[in-house]
Design goal:
Cofactor: Mn(2+)
CATH architecture of the domain at 112-337: Alpha-Beta Complex
Strand content: 15-25%
Order of helices and strands: HHEHHEHEHEEHEEHHEE
Shape: elongated
Structural class: alpha/beta
Subcellular location: Golgi apparatus membrane
Number of strands: 9
EC number: 2.4.1.-
Family: Belongs to the glycosyltransferase 31 family.
GO molecular function, one term: galactosyltransferase activity
Radius of gyration: 37 Å
CATH class of the domain at 112-337: Alpha Beta
CATH topology of the domain at 112-337: Spore Coat Polysaccharide Biosynthesis Protein SpsA, Chain A
């Protein structure tokens, strides 16, 4: 009986081993089949991706495939937006902005803010500018809303603050509402550069415009010509545009354009290239640069030289635009004397 029991246990053990071996074999076949199926699926995906992208040499994962598809969709969207932007620019000076979800139109970004430098005793000149091109009241607002052009007279204060001249300016501004009054500037020739600098700083902080222009109160500005000229430079973030010149630095005090710091300009006493002072334009980025660094930007005797000096060491595109040479009037000129 003992021998028979031992034989039964041995037989049972062999059966169990056989079953385990068979199970392991079937499991191996199953796992191998699944791995083969997975590899075939991956190969199929790679071939499909190669067929679509034309890249038959590298195998990329499904996640990478989805990323490529997403990037292509974004490229299509950007291309469509660029077409819309290009079409909008050809319709006017200012790109048309999309509407909000509630149907209201977003506020247009101004094309340019023009600061017209004026003096305390120049009321007649300001009147002539308003009559000639700037307008007042509703007509002033019209060029702002329709053409994106904001024009303001820029003036400082009398050396005797609060005197009759200051009160006269305040009274005029209460009627016309077209002044930028710089309380930190004294109306004097020696503060002309500071006046222009603070105008750029003030305007850049108040208006988010594409450009900022310095002008004077004895020239006529052709708004249409200005708009079309500036529209050609919208893609350049750091443009300095004007009638560019350079010339002699006058070192004698009795000369009209005397430069007290003449010695800084070298032995040949010649100015660096800069825009002529009657009218010139800078982009938003440059106006912000002036605003941020106003306390450390040096001023020379003449505002056009000072402005040019602020951009000498920067990566700025100097645009020599003959339409800003205000000596002679034509239909294409931007400015001319009045």
């Amino acid at each position: 009986m003992a021998r028979k029991g031992s034989s039964m246990r041995l037989t049972s053990s062999r059966v169990s081993s056989l079953l385990i071996s068979m199970f392991a074999t079937f499991a191996s076949f199953y796992v191998a089949g699944r791995l083969w199926q997975e590899s075939q699926t991956r190969v199929h995906l790679i071939k499909e991706l190669d067929r679509v992208t034309g890249q038959g040499k590298s195998a990329i994962s499904v996640d990478d495939t989805l990323k490529i598809i997403a990037c292509r969709e974004q490229e299509k969207t950007l291309a469509a937006l660029e077409i819309q932007l290009s079409a909008a620019r050809q319709e006017g000076f200012v790109s048309k902005h999309p509407k909000h979800t509630d149907g209201t139109e977003t506020k247009k970004r101004p094309l340019v803010v023009i600061g017209i430098m004026t003096s305390l005793g120049n009321k007649k000149k300001r009147y002539a500018v308003r009559q000639a091109w700037m307008g007042t009241g509703a007509s002033l607002k019209k060029i702002e809303t329709e053409k994106g052009v904001i024009a303001r007279f820029v003036i400082g204060r009398s050396a005797n603050k609060g005197d009759s001249m200051d009160k006269s300016i305040d009274a005029e501004n209460s009627q016309t509402d077209d002044f930028i009054i710089l309380d930190d500037v004294v109306e004097a020739p020696e503060e002309a550069s500071k006046k222009v600098k603070l105008f750029f700083a003030y305007a850049a902080e108040r208006w988010d415009a594409q450009f900022y222009a310095k002008s004077i109160d004895n020239i006529y500005v052709n708004i249409d010509a200005l708009g079309s000229t500036l529209a050609a430079h919208l893609e350049n973030p750091r443009a300095y545009i004007g009638c560019m010149k350079s010339g002699e630095v006058f070192s004698e005090p009795n000369q009209k354009w005397y430069e007290p710091e003449w010695w800084k300009f070298g032995d040949k006493k010649a100015y660096f290239r800069h825009a002529y002072g009657e009218m010139y334009v800078i982009t938003h980025a440059l106006a912000r640069f002036v605003s941020i660094n106003r306390d450390i930007l040096h001023s020379y005797a003449h505002d056009d030289v000072s402005t040019g000096s602020w951009f000498v060491g920067l990566d700025v595109k100097h645009v020599d635009e003959g339409k800003f040479c205000c000596s002679a009037w034509s239909s294409e000129a931007i400015c001319a004397g009045v």
